[in-house]
What does this fold into?
Amino acid sequence: MPKDDFTSICVSIPTTVLADVDLQLFDPVRCKIKYGTRSRLIVGLLERWLRNTTVEATMALPAIVPPVEMADASGAQAPEKGRQ
It folds into this structure.
């Protein structure tokens, strides 16, 4: 299996949740969390979630961007509302 490229993301989680996770991941010999441990935990949880989750292909996705008025067949833009 080819090795994946990695990317960084920024997520916001409650401080108390991170503190509890860090306590579980803390290495008393090194007196810190081993480098990459959080990432491996998150990747493992996401991979397990992906294996156990099926998404319906017909599932309606939320509208993120309002619809854009399309140009008509002649290439002219549709007039803006209130302008003619």
Summary: The mean pLDDT is 80. The beta strands are 26-27, 32-33.
